[in-house]
Each structure stands twice: as C-alpha cells, then as structure tokens.
Batch of 3 targets.
Target 1
Amino acid sequence: MNLWLKLGWREIVRNPRFTLLFVTNLALGLAGFLLIGAFGGSLASHLDDNLREMLGADLVLRSSRPLTSEEQTIASGLAGPGALHAEQLAFYSMVRGPRIARLARVVAVDEDHPLYGTLAYADGLVHAQVIAALQSERTVLLTREAARSLEVAAGETLTIGQADYRVAFFLERDPAAEFTAIDLAPKLFLGLSQVQGSGLIRFGSRVSYRTLIRLPPGTDATGVGARLEAALAAAAADGETPVGVTTTAEVNRRLGQLIGYFAEFLGLAGMVSLFLAGMAAAHLFSEQLHARRKETAILLALGARRAAALGLQTGVLATLGLAAALLAILFAWLLLPVFALLFGGLLPTGLQLGIGSADAAMALGVGVAGSFLFCLPVSVRLAAVQPLHLLQEVAEDPPEQPTALRLRLVLSLLPALGLLFLLASRLGGSLLVGAVFTGALVVLLSCLFLFARLLLVGCRGLAARASLTLRIVLRNLYRNRLAAASLFTALAAALLLVVLIPQAERGLQAEVSRPEGMELPDLFLVDIQTEQRQALVDFFRDGGPQLSALAPMVQGRIVQINGVSFADWRQRHADSEDRFFQRTEFNFSSRDQLDPSEALVRGRPLRSEAWTGQGPFEISMEQQFSQRLGVGIGDRLVFDIQGIELEGEVVNLRRVRWNSFQPNFFLLFQRGVLDEAPRTYLTSVSQVNAAQKHDLTRRLSGAFPNLSVIDVSRVVEQLDEIADRLAGALRFMAGLAMVTGLVAVFAIARQEALRREREINLLRVLGASIGRVRLLTMLEFGLVGAMAGLTAVLLSYAASLAVAWLLFDRLWRFDWLSALLLFAGATLACAGTALFAADSALHRRPVALLG
C-alpha cells in the first residue's frame, strides 16, 4: 500500500503545472455551485428562524371586510384555548406633512401588537407606553427611513385624511418589512381606535382587515389553518368574499417560489461553470495520458494487477478533486460577501451568509467524485493499455478504435451526466427541473459541437483558395477538428451565458422605463369618487400637467363560468398553487375604445352601443388572465355586482402592456352594464416637471384628501434598481463561468501545443520565425474564438427574443454594443490565452526533432 501511495504522490508532485491548473480549474467550477447552495441555504435558514416575527403570527385571517360575529366565533373555537388574537387593518392613503405630501401605507394596530418578537424603539422607549399612547392619542409610529421619505421630524404633524397626527415615536426596525423588495409607500402605524372618525375609509377604499392569531405551543398551524379556511368558506354568506387564511408555511412557500425562480437562473450559471470545469479537467487529464500510458504499461510489465494500476490514477484524481473542493470552499467563503453587496437592500436585515456543513460536505463529495467522473472517458483509454506499447516509439491509439472501446467511451459519459442531473435537481428543487436542465444542456452542447464540426469541415475547402498563412491555419483547424470543436463548444456555451444576461436586462429596463410607442405617466390617481370627477377635471384645466381619461372601476364577484360554480371551475382549471384565483372578487371597467397600451389579439371589438339588458353582455378579457382562468372566446360568465347577478359572454382577448402604468383591467364590459353600479375612478397624470411634482401632489392631497397619488417614476426607479442588482448577481456568476471557459481554452490550447510540438518545431526548422508561429497560433485559436463569439451573439439574439416573448410580454431590445464588445473580447481573449498556453512549446529548440 505504501508503494502505491508513494507512486501517486510522486505523480502529483512531479507535474506541478498540471496539478495547479487541474485543481484551480475544478475549484472555480465548484465555487459557483457552492455559492448558490450557500446563498440559498443561508436565506432559507434565516426565513425559518424569523418567519413568525415577519408574519407577526402563526395564522392571519385576511378579508376586505370586517369579520362577522359567526366568523369570529369559528376562529376562536378552532384556534383553541390559550390562543392570542390581535386586530389590524391596512390601507393606502395620502399623507401631508409640513413640506411634502406622499402616499403612505397606514397600518392600524390594537394594544396586543405584536404577537411575536419585540419592537426596538429609538430613545429607549418602552413598548407598553408606545402602544398605549397610539390607542389613546392621535400619534404616529414610523421608522427613521419612513420619516426621511415624508420629510418629517419628531413633534411635527402629519395630516392623514381629515385628521392630524403627531409624529411621536420612531421604530428602529420593522420585521414585517424585511422582505419587501418594492417600497411603494412608507409605512405608518396608528392606533386602531384612532382610525375611526378620521375620514380615512370611504366607499371604494381598498382596506385589508386582518385578524392575527398566535397558537399555543406545539399546535399544528398548517392543520388549524386548513380547517379554518374550510369552515370560514362554508360560513360566508352569499355575496360575501370568503376570508383568506395565511400561515407561515404558506408565506415560506411563496418566498421559496420567488427565491427559487431567481436561484434557478443563478444555478444555471453555476452548473454551466461546473460543466465547463469538467470539460477542461478531461482535457487536462488527456494531456497527461501519453506519459501515464507508458507508466501503466511499465507497471503491468512488472507484474502489477490492472485494477491496481488503474486505481493509482483514480487515487490521484480523487486527491486532486479533494484539494479542488477545499480550494472551492475557500473561494466561496471569500466571494460570499460579494453576494451581500450585490443584493444590498433586497436581503433581510440580519441575514448571515455562510457555508453550511451540508454544503461543504457536498462540495467535497462532488470534488472527489466529479474529478474521476469527468475524466472517466479519458481513463477508459488506459484500460486498453498493453505492455507491448513499451516497444512502440509513440504510444497512440489505433486510427480505428474497436467497437467495444467506442461503446465504453460513450457509456463513460453517462456517470458525469448523472452527477450533473443530481446537482441540477438539488439546485432546482425537483427531479423534473434537473432532467430539463441536463437535457437542455446536453442538447445545446451537442448542437454546438455538431455545428462546429460542420464549420471546421468547411475549412478544408476554404484552405485551397487562401494565402499561405491562412491556409496553414485552416488546415490545422480541419486536421484537429475534434479539439477545435471541443474548444468552440466550451467557449460558445460560456459566452452565450455572458451575452444573454445583458440582452434580457437591457430590453426589460428599456421597456419599463420608456415603453416603445408611448409615454409613461408621472402620477397615478386612485379612489376618485363620482362626485369628484368634474372637480378633478377642473383642477387640471389650466394647462401644464395632462390628465388622462378617467376609467371607472367597479368591484364584483365571479359566480359561475359556463354554468359551473367558480369554486368548482378554478379547482378544475387553475393551478392549485395559484393564490390569485383563490379569491372571487375582481375589478371591472368599461371604455369606449381601447387604450394605446392595449391591442386586440383575438375576436372582435366590443359593440359601441350600450347594453339593453337583453341577453348576455359582451366581455373583453386580458389574454394571460384568460389562460390562467381557462376561459376563451364564447365562454359565458355570471357576475355578482352589488347583489345583482348578470351574465356576459367573452367576445375578444386583449394583450395589455402593463408596463405602461395606465389604468388597465383584466375584464372590460360592454358600455351600459356598469352605469348604475357604485364605482370609483382611476386616471393618470403626465407631463409633470420634477420640480413641480411635490407641489402638485400636495395641492391634490389638500383638495381631495381621500385621493391616493402614486409616483410612477419612483416605482420605475425602484424596479430598475432591483433589476440592476439581480442582473449584477447574474453577471457575476456568468463572469465566473467565463473564467472557467477560458481555463478550458487554456487546457485545450496547451494540450494541442504539446501534441503538435513536433509540427511547431518542423516549422522552425523550415525557417519560420517565432513571431510567425505565434501569429499562426493566435490566428488559429482566435478564429475559433471569433466563431464561438459570433455564434453566442446570434443565439443570444434568438434566446433573449424568446425569453421576452414568453416571460416579459414581448418587451425586447437588443444591445448591439455589448454584443460586439463581447465578440471582439472573446476573439482576443481566446488568441491571447492560447498563445500563453503554447509559449513553452514555441521556445523549444528545433534540434529536438533530432533527439
């Protein structure tokens, strides 16, 4: 045993360049995979520990109306003795301070707030005193950040609705806001008893009533929540919206889905990086194959068993893989703070990013097993070594390999793909995601490889008509098309990931900030009462800011679809995890003609004449809404609007540009259907100068206290900032994949340079200078890099267009500048890396041919 250990250690020490490059390459690939696992694990652990504090309860009952006495009795009975209850209501309202007026989210709490956790106050205040003062006085509790947004200081007054509230208390941290990515409005806390009589809640106001429940220790919150939801649904009277029940498990699932979508994109970059590292490892090991074939033949000639001789190479690879895994853990530990910077402002406060023991153990296992599995196709060739090879001057495989060896080579690829499948399944959260990713990766790389072979075969015909220098380059590419195709595949895959991210990002940001063919409004006005319509129009009559047409909004319920109750219909057609359709109340509107942000996709326009009450009225439905609901043209829906049931028929489907921030709706009714229904109105304001925005908002809030004014430009800025941060993380992972791809370029270029050392020296003997040979090397590998870069740019063009079409409602714009820069950079990087890798062979003396 000691002999084999000494032989293995000698192989590692005697090949320092191979050892260093192999370990560094595999460590880079593992580091990307480990980063994603550590990031997701840290986030999941933080949510598990703090979810009750963020939600504020074990169960939350939500409704757009107060609970009835029967519903309160049901909730108390099923929660059991010992359960604690707290009441809240939340809504948006304009808040006017001494300097500006802004939309704010008002949360009214009772004396039992919070049920979980503790609140930290500025100036050493005691919670009991603060919560008692909120109930007995018109005071406001808010965070320092919210105070800065409202430009208000302690002791000053905020006008909310028709009442004045004094800024008395500052909250250091709001646990419930830790995972709110978009700050639509700052949050204010009032006493629940102080909201009555303030004029804050009027007809059409969107108010969320909440009952928070803290269950006794050891209670199954998920089971109680399911029973509560069923009992409350059964108790809801006709025409009432059922009460929704939210548990910590439900919140965790939603956050897990949100995190999972983004983690899948990051995981894609990490898995591509690991795959490229595996490809480079196989080429690096192939570089050492010549010497190891001879060493294996010597061992066999000296009487060693074949299994022991092959086990020596396996042990060497496992040792190198272990070293790579340890180095990857160090890399990931050093790079995790970069993730914290990239996601600054999006991650929960107090989140500690770290590498868990399970992630570290998995990295060690992947490093040891992966180093062997990635090199298995090369190791298979060692199984055919015979002592007879010692009598050969050059120990190469026969030109035509036996069928059995070819079959073994193909089968040897399966374990590596199986490892990638398992890792992708872990990152994606399901075997299906793993299978789709692995299959897509195999298909992509196979297509790139076959495309490269076709291009390289064409080099033979081009060489006949080229100059001498270019002829040598093209013939080299044709003669070594297997290595060149591998280089092309590795580089194109890495470049595709790098160039695709800015394409999708640029198109999305361009359309969010300035949708093509339309102008974004500056302000969005909500909760306009019927009696305020004319006054609002007169308010903007003096010119300057432009008021768009007022859109009526009526709330109602979907009762039936094609004669089937809505509850039964959504169970058949809607996704069971789609919480959107677990409510039955929606907003409806009508308009004489479509807005510029809308376009008819199928069907005919709504009739221009008003509905007479005879037969079903006509409905225009938003396209994606119809797909999620499982409804198409010709289907009939029954609606309950203020207790009156009306039937309508879908006559067209619309595509809506939601990024236009105009008053848009899922359902538009034929004119005349909603004329008698109580309603509020929505509208937008454009052409508002930044200097006059605060003044205009303040004057609007003073003239119409119930009006909610949303600053659209601020929302767009926040969306841009979030997109920038998410894209930054993706660019970071894509850059890691690019570095791994360049290592693969280096490995392949070095292998080719060493394999063709005699050819290089022959060129020197024939009179070629080192400069000319360098030029040939740069042209050969630069040409492969250029072809890979061009292919990646074209594929990114198609892929970004497909992503925009499927996911972003066709929002797309190609960034030619970044594509051209990446194309040029890939060509130069590939040529430079190859030149550096082949430098040692270039400086060998031509006399080596005579040795």
Target 2
Amino acid sequence: MTQTVEEILEFPQVVDMVRRYVVSPLGAAEVAKLRPLAQRKQSEEELASVGEAMEYLQAAEKTPGRTAAPIEFHGLHDVRPAAERLRIEGAELEPVEIFQLLEVLNRAGDIRSVLASSEGRFPRLAALVAGIAEFRPLLRDLEGKILPNGQLDDHASGALRRIRREIEQQKRAVHESLERFVRAHGEEGSLQEDYVTIRNDRLVVPVKAEQKRRIEGVIHAASSTGQTLFVEPLETIDLNNQLVRLADAELAETHRILREMTARLAHYADAIAAGIETVGRLEGLFARARFGVELGAKVARFSGPEQPRLHLLQARHPLLEDLLRRQGKSAVPASLTMDAGRRVLIISGPNTGGKTVALKTVGLLALMAQAGLPVPAEEAELPWFEQVLADIGDYQSIQDSLSTFSAHMGSIRTMIERATSRSLVLIDEMGAATDPQEGGALGVAVVEHFRQAGAFTLVSTHLPALKAYGINTPGVLSASVGFDEQTLEPNYRLTVGLPGKSAGLDIARWLGIPAGIIDNAQRALTSQDREVASLLQELHRRVEEHRAAEAALDERRQELERREQHTRKEWEKRETAKLQELERRVELVLEKFKAEAKQTIERMSQPVASKKASREAARVEREVRSELEATVLETLDESRKGPLKPAGEGVKEGDLVRLRDVGTPGRVRRKLAGEKIEVEVGFLRMQVGVEDVLEVLPAPAGPAKTLPDRVTFQAAPRTDQSLVEINVIGATADEARERVDKFLDTAVLTATPRVRVVHGHGMGVLRKALWEMFASHQHVEKYYAAEQREGGTGATVVELRI
C-alpha cells in the first residue's frame, strides 16, 4: 500500500497531539479536519488567528479575568445532527436534544461577549465571534422548560401543569382503591403479596392462581412460574381508565410543546448552524494555540516567491519532543538556513545520528505551517511549497516483487516527474541498497536534476560521491549530524557547512563486534578511504574546538553582562543613599531654621528689642537660606558625579585638572612612580592616583599669531593660587570688604568661575560682613559655606558671573 507524504512524515500523529487539547465533540471534529491547505493566503490567515489565540491564552494565564478571560468548552455535546433536523419541515426534536442545543447557544453567547470586549487587542478573534447571532430572546423563551435529565418541566405550559396535577390526584385515588381491596381480601388468603404493582401501564395486585375465581377483575399478566396472576380489580378499572386517558393527554401535550419549541428553533436554523460551527472552530483554534504554547512553538512566516528562504532556528521534531518530555528529557534542536542561491542540503554522518529525523523535521514543519499549526522552533521562515515530496523509509514489497532499491527508484521517478521550483524534496539514504560507486553516481545525477529544477532538496547519504558533490558544487550545502568520538554515541546535533563521517566501524566496535573483525575491516579499506576519513575527523575536531571557543566567549560575555548589571545596581544603591542623605540634610537645616525662627519670633514679641530682633531675624533667615542652598547644591553635585571614568591616563605636568571629591581645580606639578601624580590645589599639595582625575580642563586661549592694525593684546593675570583664594583673617570688616571686592574684580577678569574666601570662625563678624556684601555684589552668582575639607564654616565659596 502506497503511503501519502503526510503519513510518511507522520502528520496524522501531530493531529492526534493537537486533539489532546479539545474537550468537546465540536472541537474534535474541527481538529480532525486539519490538513495542509492549498492556498497560501488561507494558511497565512490561519496562522495569524492561531498566533492571536496563543497571545490570548498567555494573557489569560498572566492576568485571568482582566486582560483576557478564560474560554471554556467543557460539557458541550455534538448537536450538529439536531441542528440539521431543524431544517426538516414538521420535525420534532427530543427534549434532551433541545436542552443540549440551548446549552451550546448559551455558551456561544458567553464566548461572543468575552471576545467582543477584547476587540482592540484581539481583532481576529472578535471578528470570528461577530458572526454568532443574538440568541437571548430565543433562550428567554425556551430556557427552563426542559430539565437536565431531558424531561419537560411542569411549567412548560399551563395545560401540562394541570394534566400532571390531575394524574397525581388520579394515582392517589387508584392507590386508595387498591389498598382497600388488599385489606378486604388479604385475610382470606387470596392474595400472593400485600402490595400494588404495575403491569401493561395498569395498577394491579398479585393474586394466587388457584384463587382467581374469587377475585373479579382483569388478568394482565402471570409470573414465570404461573403461580401468581396480576389482576386489575373490577372496582379500579374505571379509575385506571381515567389514569390512562390522562397519561395520553400528557403525552399529546408533551408532543405539542416539543413541536412548538422545535418550530421556534427552526426559525433560527441557519444562525444556529453558524453558531455551532463557530464554537467548534474556536475550540479547534484554541486547541492549536494550546498545543503551540505547551510546546514552546512559534507561528511560522512564509517568504516571498521572488526571494524564497527556508530558515529554521532551534527547530525540534514535535513527536520526538513529546516523547522525550514524558521521559524527562529534551530534544536536541537543529538550525539551518537555505535560500534561492542554496537550495540543496546534503546531510551525512553515522547511523542513528539523526539524519532521518532532520529530514522529517523540515518536511513535517513545512506541512504543519501550511496547515495553520505553530511549529516548535525559535524562528521559522519557509517558502510556500505547492507540494512536499518525500522518499523516507524502507518500501521493500514482497507482494509487488520489489526490492528496497527498486521501491526507492520507483518513488524517486515519481518525484522527478512532479518536482518544480516550488517543491520540497526529501530523500533518505540516497543511492543506498546498491553498489556504492553506481549508487553515488546515480545519486549525484538525481540531486543535480532537482537542483536544476530549483526545488528545495534535502538528502541524507553515506556515499563519498555525494559528500564530495556537496562540498564542491556551488549552491549546495553540506551538513553533518553529531558523533561523540569519546563515547562513540550520536549527539544528534546538526552542523551545517561540514560533511559527516559514517563511523560505521567505530559504531560496530561500540556495539560489540569483535576487535579482530574490526581490524580486518580497517585493513581492507583503501588508502583513499582512510585519508578521507582522517580528513573528516580532523575537520570535525577543529569544528569542535571552534564551538568550544565560542561557548567560552559566550560564557565570558554573560559574565561581563552580570558584572555590568551588578555595577549598575551598586551605583543605583549609592545614588539612593545620596538622595537619602540630601533629604536628611535638608530636614536638619529646616529643623534648625524652624528653631531659630521660633526664637526670633519670641524675641520680636518684646517691644524694647523690636529693631534688634528684626535685624536678628533677617540675619538668621539669610544664614539658614544660604546653608540650605549650599547643602542642596553640594549633595546634588555629588549625586551627579556617578561612576565617572578616570580621565588621567594622558595627563601631563602643568595641566589644570579637576579631581574626584575636590571642588577646586588644581595644577599638576609632576608625575610620580606607580601611576601617581602631585597636584597643587590652593596652598595644598597632594599626591593622588591618575584614576582620581575626573577631567583635564582646557588651557586659556593664547593670542592670535597676527592681529589687525592698531589692535594690541595684553595677557590677563595668570590663574594661580592668588586668583582662586584670598585670606582675610585678622582684617577689620571694612578692610576685608575692600580686599575681597578687588579680589573678585580680578577673578572675573581672569574668568575664574569659583573662588574661596578664608575668613576664619572667630565671632563670625567677618563672615557676616562679607555675606552681606556678597548678597548684593554684581559679580556674585551664589555663595555658601565651604565643605569641611576646604575649611567648613571658616571659609566661603563664591561662584562668579562669568
């Protein structure tokens, strides 16, 4: 029996996997229809819908009930036959059929409401359920009239309720009559048992056969032994007749109600059929999506016909993946890329190494994509194949008198006749089962034919001729499956760009063939065979070394990324600490401000000292505001510094530099041993490492080489220590103001942005006088107390308007 390509590539087994994710007959019927589609646009639409359903499932799992509410299909029955009967004139559905139909329609309405509300994020799903009709009026009319057990409810109609009430009353009357009869004849021994039963829908009593003449009535049945007769007493016949008439009336009313309900449903026959189909399609769609999510699959995309591309990244065979998962293992993924210029791939390597799995994976994933199924891969781009042609497996046929080789040739002949540039051709063990030289020559000719036809072709082989063809022919790729030289076990890794060695003798030794036989076989190899095997072994060794080096580099890169992330976190912690320190300092200054303001207000409440208190309040306000400004600016300046990179590698003697943790620039006096430099900052000289240099400041621009007529140039005073700091300790307030005023003028002329005025602590007289002058000085941008390492409150830092 000839297998189809879907059976060869085990597509039906994949459909069985998807079927696990359906819970109703409607979804199962939809999944059973899965086949590779004939039109590219159809497949793209299906894949887009499946991709959206996968996103919906993931959103529903992350935030259930918010972004996406779960969709349930449990408990639904196959109501398609009942829906079809609605189209028959005068049809009457069974109560259970109507109940199940209403159940599906109710669920369809719920699903439509849920998905329609997500139209903005899931437009395809919303468009699909938009075709479900509005069944709420129908459901309001019919729901509740049929019980879950398939019986009509008493309230299905007024007549039915009345008839059933009369039946109950009549049953009580019959029972009472029979109970009187039993009491009357029980003592005389005519009755077999003292109870009432039913025969032929009539209430009867058991009478001994020999006493039948003593009881007037109608015999309806006898026991198996003939010793008991079931008799309807004469006095209850009319009562039973009335009960039967009521039962007939109930049956007639039941049929009338069911015909009416069926006719009501028949008005919606087309909409009901469409709604049932939509529910089934949705369940099939979500089953495919659940399959994709559980398998870690992706939605494939199709390349354009003008630039066909077959690209699979980390692809796995779904059936193998499923099998290994159940064993607690994982499949080895394969990656490959083929395009318009490289349409042929020759795969070689040891037996059991995974060549056939690689072929089947590519073919099966192509069928799955065209059937609208997500494929197990990190990335998947495939040409649109009009047909997939495969020759995989042993087709030896005793019935048809065909050898393995003949069967293969027959299959390949058919493939040659049908292959086009839009075909995917898969051939396992090309040229096998015949003489290696003839098989190799024939295999090369066949593969070349497919290459000339433009078909994407994947071939597995052991033959050296085909391996050489793969290496030497433009547009043909070589690939090998992995083989561990140490353990002699296959590792199933597909390596594109390198042919594989068969390793038949090595595997035979591993499987226990005696060493003497293996040695004889090796001696029987030609020198050319041994040289080729040695060359391939060396190539594989180098590839493994390269792969190990890549792995080491990747590990190093990951380590660097981890370090960078750690550094970033540490920096963020330091920044957070600085901000917390800023908040603490601001709070302390504010507390101080509040305390001194309170004291000043208390002093101002004394009339005698009102002027003095006003001056004191003004002074306190200025001092606290200046201190607050200095604290905030200092802390913000520190927080901006961050983990700056050192700029001192190229520093030279005489450079003006800014150092870490030092506000005032300094000049490099000399370079010391061990990456150290001596820097002069003000009247201090310090030795620091070059890594502490944050930046080298630009030197002041010199005069132009030539100046216009009648233009002269006079250099400004050199920026030295005398221009960045002044000491007025011991001077009177007036002397200090005069000296500092001239000092500021000179600093502005030399474009010095920041100076320090040393006035000492003392009684605070000089500090107060100078700060009052700074508050209104034309050159002063801002001023504040120096940092502790620069003199603290005994010095003032002044920033100038340049």
Target 3
Amino acid sequence: MANPDMGWFAKARSRFEEGSRPQRRFGLLLWATLIAVICGTVDLGHPLEAVLRTSRNLIREHNASGQIVIVGIDDKSLAELPGWPWPRGRHGELADALAEAGARRIFFDLNFDAPSVPEEDEKLEAALTRHSSKLVLPTLAITDQMTERRTLVYPLARFARHAQLGFIGVYYDFRGVAWNLPYDSDMGGTRQPSFAAKLANVAGPPGQSFPIDYSIAPQSIPLVSAADVIKRRVPKQTFAGKDVLIGATSHQLADTFLAPAGGMLAGPYLHALGAETLISGAPKALGWFIPVLLTVALCAFACLLRKVGLRILVLATGMALCLLAPIALEAMRLYVDVVPALIMLVIVGGRLAWMRHRASVSAKAVLHPVSGLPNLAALRETQDGHKRPLVAARITNFAEIASSLAADQERALIQQIASRLTLGSAGQKLFHGDEGVFAWFADDEMAVTLTDHLNAMHGLFRSPVILADTQVDLTIVFGVEAGSDRSPSNRLGSALVAADEAAVEGLRWKEYDSARLKEAPWRLSLLSQLDAAIDSGELWIAYQPKLDIRTNRMNGAEALVRWTHPEKGPISPAEFVLAAEQSGRIQKLTFYVLERAIQAAAALNARGVSFAVAVNLSARLIDDAFLPEAVSKLLDRHGLRPDQLILEITETAALGTSAAHLGNLARLRSLGVQISVDDYGTGLSTLDYLKKIPACEIKIDRSFVQAMHRSAGDRVIVNSTIQLAHSLGRRVVAEGVEDRETLFALQQMGCDIAQGFYVGRPMPLHGLARQLLKERDELLIAAG
C-alpha cells in the first residue's frame, strides 16, 4: 500500500529550500563579508595567519644561496678570547683576517656608537681605514614607547667616515616575532638602506617592508666562529667573494629573537634570512583584500546554486584554495593573508551546513520513524483546522500487538490501519503518534456526518487485519474535540482524553465536553492553592470520635483534614490529599495536620480528659529519616505524651515497607508513639508480616464491617481478624459502624474500639471538646 501522506515529506524538505532562498543566502554573504573585512582591517586573524604561514614554511623549506657567511661571536669565541666586550682592536683583527681571506664585503652587526679605550679605538679605526671599501657599519632608530620620541643611533664619526652605513632595525609583532624587514629607514631626513637590502644589493620602495622567507633553513647559512677567523683556522675559500655578516650568536649576549616555528634565533640570522629572501627575488605582500574579494565572488556563485550539495562543494573548494594556493604563491614570491577569507568561508559554509542539518532534522522530527506519516509534533505545528473537528483514534490493544511483531510487520500493520482510517476521505492528512494513536482534522463534508462516519469506521475495524497469514483483531475508540481557537496541542489532548473516557465507558466514540475547560485553571493550580490554604488557615481539622466498646466512652478521635475554599466552598479531601501525594508534596500537609492534632490532644488532656488522637501517615513519609525526630519535637513542643498519638498507615503502605523502613516505624514505637494498620483486609497481609510490623492496633476496613449483616463470610472475616489481632497483642478498631446492631455484634466478638457515623460524625474541635467534657463531668458526678 502506498503511504497515504508521503507528500508531507516533500513539503517538509521544501521548508529548507524556502528558508535558504537566495535573498536570505545573500544576506548571509553580506554579513560574512563585513566580518571578514573587519578581521582583515584590524588584523584579528594574525595568530592563525602566523600558524598557517609557519606550516607552509615547513612544507617549502629549502637551503640558502651560500653567498652570505655569518661570523658568530659564539660561546667558543667567548671562551678562547675572554673579556667581553672585546677590545675594539680585536674587531679590527676580524676585519683584517676577513679582508685577507678575500671577503667581498664585511657587515658588522655590532654597535660602535660610544668611545672606548683610545688605543683600541685607534686600532679599529686603522683597520676600517685599510678596508673602507668593504666595510658596512650599523645604524639604529630607537622609539620610546611612552613618549614616542625617536632616537637615532650612529657609529662614532671617526668610524662612520671610513665605512658605509646600513639600518639594522627590526619590526616585531605582539609575540616578538619579526615577520617583515624594512627596505630602508628614515634616519633624520636621509634614507638608510637596511642590512638585508644592502646584502642583497636591492633597493626597494622607500619606506616599505617585505616579508621574510622563513622557509629558508637558518642552519643552511654558513656559520664560522669568530675565534677561528682571528686565529686563521678557516680556509680562505670560505669567505672569498662572499659577503660576511659579523654578529653575536651566543645566547649569553642576548642578541636573539623569537622564531616563528618556536625557539630563539640569533640576531645576525635575521638580516641574513632577509637578504636571502631578496636574493631569490623581491617578494610582494598582497595582503588580505584580494583573497577576500575572490572569496566574495566564490560565495556569491555558491549562493546562486540551487543544490545544497553543489554549494557545499564550491565552498569546500574555496577552503582548499585558501589553504593550498599560498604555498604556490609564496614559491613565486607572492605573500597573501588568507585568514579573513577563511573566516568568511567558515561563516557562509557553516551557516549553510547548519541550515541544511536543521532542515533535515526538522523534516525527520515531524515524521513518524516507522510509518513515515506526519507525527503528532507535525499536528501541533499545523496552522489550519482550527474551525474543524479534531478526531483522535486510539488502538487500545496496540501495545500488546506491537510487542509481538517485527519492525516490518509493525509497519505493515500501521499501513493497514492508515488505509482504513483514510477510506472514503481522499487527501486527508493523517497524523501518527506512538502507542497506536492517530489523529486528523475532519473536512467540511465529514464534519456534517461525523457521527455516522465514526460509527461506520468503528464497524470497519471489527474485521481483523491480516499479517503474514495471521489474523489480528484491533479494538479502537475515537475522541472528538469540536473546532475551537485553542492550540492544536491542547485540542489533541482533549480529543485523547475523550477517547480514553470512551474506552472506559465502553463507547465507540465520545466528544470532549468543553465545559470541563472552566475547571481546568482550578485543577492546574490546585497544589499551589493548597499551599496557600495551609499558610492562610483555610484548612481545618475535623475529629471523628472513637468509642471504647468495653466502657462505652470516647477515648480518642481520628484527625481528618478539611478544606473550605472561600470561593468554591468545601473541597473533597479525596481530591486534594491524593493530588498532594501524587506530586510528592504531602509532607507539608501531613505536618500541618500533625501539629494541630497534637496541640488539640494536649489541650484536652490538660483538662482532665484521657484522649488519644490518630493521624493518617502517608506512605510517602514512612521512609523519611527525619520523621521520628520531627514527631518527637512536636510532642515535646505541645506537651503530649507519645502514647497519646497514633499514626495510621494503610495496610498497602505497610506491606510495601522495606526492612529499612520498618526500622523507621520501630524508632517511632521506641518513642512511645502508637502505630495503627489502617484499612486492614484490603491488602494481602500474612501472619508473619503482621508480626514484623510494630503496630499497636489493627483497623478493620469499613467494607467488611458494613457487610456483616448481609454476608456471613464478612462476619467470619471480622471475627477471625479480631481473634488474630488479640493473639498478636494488638487491639482492634472497627471502622464504618453505622447502626446499633453492628456495634452490638462487635461487642459480642470482643472488638476494642468502634468508629463510624453511629459513634459520631467528624466534627470541629469545639464540638468534640464539649462532648468529651460532658462525659467527664458525668463520670465525676457518678463517682462522687
């Protein structure tokens, strides 16, 4: 059978297409572009850009040209030629040795900006004079971070006039990594070329910088110890025709900077790497704008595509280009910043992927996984049908049937059910819920003859369905909620309530009574109103007397809670006590009754009346570890002897009490409080269990007491219970005593206490007190 409403799935999927229509996608593109531009402008992506460039450098790693040699003042030099800073004559010796070895040019990455020992300065000046055509000395500009004042640092004039000058300033990022070097610098109106530009013999654009190619392996740059040079231990061909850069390479001299890949790199390597970069060809930094512009075009093209898969493919291609294309570009000396473009692609692609996922989840969320029909969540979202009747059908034996079926058989069963429910109503949208629930909105024609339609449909389901040559009988009931302005969810709940009531009442279908809605606010706020009633004193305690059959006098009463609502009048205890128990909020109500009952009993006993009060204890409180302590405090507060308080627990609650909970009852008994098993006979007590329960009395359920005159069996049960209780040392209370004959029969059986309307109806405390005091006075007169 074809699915009666598979068109719903297509509609659900179309919501995604509608939700991601071109204008919305281009709105997303606009926001993504704006974010990318902001990131590029303020360089927010620099940390990630540094990581990506470092990764590319590792991929492209290659050796230096070998045209630049570093002469390092290393640990070996400091050990063999101690006394740093060295005498300047020693630097002159370095220049002599390198010139003698045929070095093309000699760059000193050492500052000679202040006078030293005159004789040593003369030695250095003499060496500079001998090799003035080959020597380059450093200049530097230092900017004070507080005042932003720029200080220019030059070699002493006596040295500078015998050498060329080169700028050694470095630009660092916030991490202390130098990614770029200047071509030159403004030194007081004169453009001073940088060491890197001078080493590479490149004149770049004035005031501009260039990116350092860190893919050149620093260890591939030739390094010679200054001590070996001075002591002539290096072959001349090492320096012949090459540029030599002299600088501190020992970490003791602190001329180091943070390398992009981690670790520290000696200062001379920075200028050498910059020079090697320029020797390979002047690099161009294209920045972030061009990648972002290309990405905007790519994303715009993706947004024009109708198929979601193609859009994601195009965006994934853009992502791959952002990650891989810079490798090829940097090999061609072109450097780009791709993080803003990547951010844009992630935003657009991530948002589109999320929209697709959400649409997919939404489509599945409104379809039943077994039948493929729209589920009840789809019904709750529907916008039509407010004025049409909503019909809910429940297969009452569905759980029993489905538990014995395989998945494919369950699907076949649902398909047959759906076929019958939609018979004669082509195009009707059927909603499918769990546990054999189906629902639909009756169309206008069906609404007129809905009664006949449901009766006919009920008759249709009398025929069994066939599953794998097995006949399966279905029982079905219908609930109807007439059209209203309430939400579909509320209407569905009402229709299901009506269906359940129809099943209980043996009806084929039932219409929900809208008049019940007037009581809904009261039922929904019952517990909160109960709490307020306890606090405001709307609740009061009625006392039903208990008669000592042997003496024919009242010896106590059972405390029964009553609620007189200011608007609704008396509220049945069965309604609010049950609600409090089921919601786990019985504790406050129980202790309210306990305290007032104990207080009343204490007051009566103080007036010379021997009186015990009984209070019902909820099964939910039996396992409360703090119950004995709380009861003890109440007794102490009001001065009532513990044996004058009786806590009644139902037989069912007693039977369900664990060993640990029996210990709780035992602690109450150890205080002296009496325990009573209420409604005895309605459970399944055993003699052994009755022995374990620390009860003082047993209350025979009223159903047995009231039936004694009509049923010999009930009379035997009451009599045997009395004898059994006495044999166990328990006294017996008979509930439901409503006539003199019953009381007389109980007296003949030896029952201890009677309770019922014949003895006395529940009454306020003042009525009970008046009656008890009257009995006391009569007893005193008789005794006197």
